[in-house]
UniProtKB/TrEMBL annotation:
UniProt-recorded name of the protein: Glycosyltransferase family 39 protein
Keywords of the record: Cell membrane, Glycosyltransferase, Membrane, Transferase, Transmembrane, Transmembrane helix
Transmembrane domains' residue ranges: 12-33, 86-104, 116-133, 139-158, 165-188, 208-232, 261-282, 294-311, 347-365, 377-396, 408-427
Main subcellular location of this protein, as a coarse class: membrane
Keyword Cell membrane assigned: yes
Membrane found in the keyword field: yes
Pfam families reported for this sequence: PMT_2
Topology term for the membrane: Multi-pass membrane protein
Highest taxon, organism lineage: Bacteria
Domain Glycosyltransferase RgtA/B/C/D-like: 65-226
Annotated InterPro entries: LipidA_mod_glycosyltrf_83, RgtA/B/C-like
Cellular localization per UniProt: Cell membrane
């Protein structure tokens, strides 16, 4: 193994461990969460099952909401290890680990300080939001990889004009578009277009934008290798969707998740926990404003947040690729701190004590009714663990800042594991394997399985289905279909307090705070007759 790689692994072994340990636990113990994870697994499964590796499929139809890279990675996993569920969470985890090395390299490029670079990797890995998101089957951690590759190229090009950096930028833009569409440009273009604010004057000229334009063209060229055959084979509707819907409609005029312009602001401190409460991470920001590297990262992060705030569609996880900017800013600030370090442990110790006390209180109020879908013993074990964690942080007195940073990071790992303990029973309410297997069995018996409202493919991979479900959007559609078909079963999602006669359903299971029901033919009549006149069928929410 080359010396440089050995050195990198040695310096990053703590943040690597912080991500890998929960990743293994998540892969072994947690179900795949509807509707996002199960939807994307379902799309990948239909691609695999139908040998449709150019055009993604959902419920038998072309799926245009997302590009194919994540689905290709899932199919690659099955090609290497066979169709399985156990290895899939390691795909985003691998990219999460790569992101640590990229953050480390960007920090070295900006400040040539290994301590700052190590702080940046440790802080990123131990942000609770990033830590928990690193093993989720979604696009954001993978997109963050391409964003970091692109920004590393931009920083390198600002320091040394070489064609290779613009090629790297172009490939990263193309990879980002293949991951989640043109939204990658929101993370990359602000810092590149505002180069005149941070690139040294002697290195900046109008040619900067010409080279940037070349990189964008290279990125488009990368995407065209997939886009052209997909547009030719996917049909007219799919062609319009991927050529237009993925750009103007989804970025500027989103149909879902519309939020006010300020919506992200209160979420940012939450996403940065526990480092939000770590004073050295913020104390030096004002005096670092003239630092060229600090200014560059600030423009990168602020530009992305501002653009996302202006877009109509907002989701918390859209900020995951922005978290590396905060880790870099915090790392630079922490490196400036002089004097006794131990005193800075108190706010984070207090956080864990507060969380533990809050959970204990919630488990006691009205005999735990606030947590009715959780196991109260698991909650109390987690709460006790958080109190112990806070107490340990209070008692330990690290003498140096590196030791304190390590202590805070390890505490994040412990907090994450306690979170998994406390939520174990609730998480199992998201496991759709039982009803997915019931769907497979009914289809094997020749039944048409109907779904109330939009079907997000949540059963397809879990049961390895090869037949689509029939989506019926209204009670009238259900009634009309039932009148013309004999062997049918209907899936809906009902309040968990609603009593249902066992004779009315083939299968029922708890699901989230509701119950998923597969109605018999007679049960469908009961479902339609008991539903209020103005009530439409309940469906699983769309979180895409």
């Amino acid at each position: 193994m080359p010396q440089a790689i050995r050195l990198l692994i040695r310096e990053l072994r703590l943040p690597i461990a912080i991500l890998v340990i929960p990743g293994i636990v998540l892969a072994l113990l947690l179900p795949y969460f509807p509707v996002d994870e199960t939807r994307y697994l379902g799309v990948a499964w239909e691609m695999w099952n139908n040998h449709s590796f150019i055009v993604p499929l959902q419920n038998g139809l072309p799926y245009s909401h997302k590009p194919p890279l994540l689905f290709w990675l899932l199919n690659l996993d099955w090609l290497l290890f066979g169709v399985n569920e156990g290895t899939l969470r390691f795909i985003p985890l691998i990219f999460s680990l790569l992101n640590l090395t990229l953050v480390y390299r960007i920090a070295l490029k900006l400040w040539d300080d290994r301590q700052v670079a190590r702080y940046a990797a440790v802080i990123l890995a131990s942000m609770l939001s990033y830590l928990l998101w690193s093993s989720v089957i979604m696009f954001d951690v993978i997109l963050a990889f391409w964003v970091l590759v692109a920004v590393l190229a931009v920083v390198s090009a600002a320091q040394e004009h070489r064609l290779a950096w613009y090629l790297q930028l172009g490939v990263a833009i193309g990879g980002g578009i293949l991951t989640k569409g043109p939204v990658v440009l929101v993370y990359v273009l602000p810092v590149a277009l505002l180069g005149f604010l941070w690139v040294p004057r002697e290195r900046f000229s109008g040619k900067w934008y010409a080279w940037l334009g070349l990189s964008i063209l290279i990125g488009i060229g990368v995407v065209l290798f997939w886009l052209v055959p997909a547009a030719l084979t996917g049909g007219e509707t799919y062609r319009r969707a991927i050529l237009w819907g993925q750009t103007v409609n989804r970025m500027a005029n989103s149909f879902a998740h519309k939020r006010p312009i300020w919506w992200y602001l209160p979420w940012i401190p939450t996403l940065l926990m526990p480092w939000t409460l770590f004073p050295p991470a913020w104390r030096a920001w004002k005096r670092l404003s003239s630092d060229p590297g600090f200014k560059m990262v600030l423009i990168w992060g602020a530009g992305s947040v501002v653009v996302f705030s202006l877009l109509s569609g907002k989701q918390v996880h859209y900020l995951i690729p922005v978290l590396p900017t905060f880790s870099l800013l915090m790392a630079r600030s922490v490196a400036e701190e002089q004097g006794e370090a131990a005193r800075f442990r108190f706010p984070i110790a207090g956080l864990y004590l507060f969380l533990g006390a809050g959970l204990i209180t919630a488990s006691l109020i009205k005999h735990g009714k606030l947590l009715k879908h959780f196991d109260l013993m698991e909650i109390r074990i987690a709460a006790a663990g958080l109190i112990v964690l806070g107490a340990v942080l209070f008692m330990l007195r690290p003498r140096t800042m590196p030791a304190l940073v390590n202590q805070v990071a390890v505490a994040s790992l412990a907090c994450c594991l306690l979170f998994l303990v406390g939520g174990n029973t609730m998480f199992q309410r998201y496991d759709l394997h039982p009803i997915a297997e019931a769907v497979r069995q009914k289809q094997a018996e020749g039944y048409q399985v109907l779904h109330t409202g939009k079907y997000h493919g949540q059963f397809h991979f879990l049961a390895r289905l090869s037949q689509p479900l029939v989506e019926l959007r209204s009670r009238d559609e259900i009634r009309a279909y039932a009148a013309t078909h004999d062997k049918i079963a209907l899936i809906s999602y009902e309040k968990d307090t609603q009593p249902i006669d066992p004779k009315s359903y083939y299968f029922l299971q708890p699901f989230r705070s509701k119950q998923a029901v597969m109605w018999t033919r007679d049960g469908i009549a009961t479902f339609l007759g008991e539903a209020p006149d103005k009530k439409e069928p309940t469906e699983a929410p769309d979180a895409e």
